[in-house]
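Dear support,

I submitted the protein below through the web form. The confirmation email said the job was done, but the results page showed an empty box. After a refresh the structure appeared. I'm attaching both so you can tell me whether what I see now is the final result or a partial one.
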Amino acid sequence: MHDAPSLRTSFTRIQMAILVGALGLGPAVTAAPAPRPPRTVDAEAERLKAIRAAEPGLSAEAARAKLARLEKAWALATAKGLLKTPEWRERRQEGRQSVLGRAFLDTRPSHPGMTEEQVKAAFLAQGEERHVSHLLCKTREEAEAALKRIQAGEPFEKVAAEISVDPSAAQNKGDLGWIRQKQMVTAFGDPVFAAPVGALVGPLQSEFGWHVAKAWEARRETEADFAARRETLLKEAAATQMKMRREAALEVLRPRYPLVPDLTVLGADRTTETLPGDEKKVAGRVAGTAISLRTLKRHLVDVLKTMGSSHSLGAATKARFMEGVADDIRLSEAARKQGLDRRPEVQAALWLEERERAYVRYAEAFLSEAQVSEVELAKHHETFPDRFRQVGALRLQVLVADSKDEVDAALNAVRTGLPWREAVARYANAEATGNPEPGWVEVASLKTLVPPTLMQPLLAGPQGQPVGPMLGPDGFMIFNALERRPGPVMPLGECREAVRADYLKAHGHDLVERSLGD
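What the results page shows now:
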């Protein structure tokens, strides 16, 4: 009861306020404002903005046409069951992580980007660039002997290809291309850039061995060079800025979301080639997300640029490589924690990423079934004969070992930089291998020995990439194709599928676009 006076007072005040308001003598007590209706988002408008942001020169009409084609490709790919495979789900997830990661980085503070004038000044201040060749020897005596051969008139590239122990010399004949002094170790770069252009330099000793070098030409960047490369240089500067912003963000996120690798899974597998069931094996976890062995292997192939045996990569090394996959997951998780995935512009970017991937899947399926007339095939074959010219001979290195373990060790050693001749000396059966120096071998005779699975990379794969192993008549063999010599043009009847594939490479995009515009 002791609270009654105060209650009465409050009640009276409220009554008075209402009365005064009703008589127009003062402000009345107003009701609480009604909640605002949720903001409606025009999803199509956001998607059109995303398309035009990705292709700045696209008109509004062209953007609408692209949106329609993307939606149609999505529907057709879905109907064909192309978006249900493990590979699709992994690629889709990677795409989402990429979009969310970029969205998160866009919210992070960073230093102002370089202005165009700053980019130009840095470009022009790079200093002299020289076109340099070199050869590398194990001893000073070998380098002096090579120098004397060149001074006597033998071509530098011939001597380098024959005696240099630099693994790249077999392909580039010692040509390092255009380089700057700061790109080289001091013991090599300083004397090469101090010498007159055209002079032989050496022997020079570095941590790698003894060098003989020659600078063929010198040049400096000019205003005209900047103008010609302006767009590329500005994009590179922006990419560098984003890379710095990414690394700064990851320094905070890595401790927050540690990678937990499964060393048992990583240690049990001995290849970077994806195998059935890899998508179900968990190589590691980060931020509650599982990284499949399949995803890790594809990352390893992208980074190492090689597929197949990976005996030299232990479980701990693979775990370190997996940090690259984990970083993308960390950034996307941070974006979700920040609610960025709910923003209309980010949802539109996610839509575009997903639809463009589905477009690619649809295009691949469509072109695999596309019919090309005999008239078109014949015309394409006649117009581009060199594309269907056979390889007549290979300049080939061969190594023959007595056991599978020895040939595997040789293959991994060469892939990690051991010169071929040293691999032969260390692992090969010298009698079965014969002369380790590369020689020309006719493809026709080689096909009687080497199975098609190995012939294809020898004929069309990267040169200087060891291939094998295989069991031959004298032991376990690996091969290294250094050069290819052209042979005759294949008749259309013998290369119809190759002509069809080349035709679709040139015209496939237009065919796909027309199929979606009907």
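Response: this is the final, complete result; the empty box was a page-load delay. The mean pLDDT is 85.
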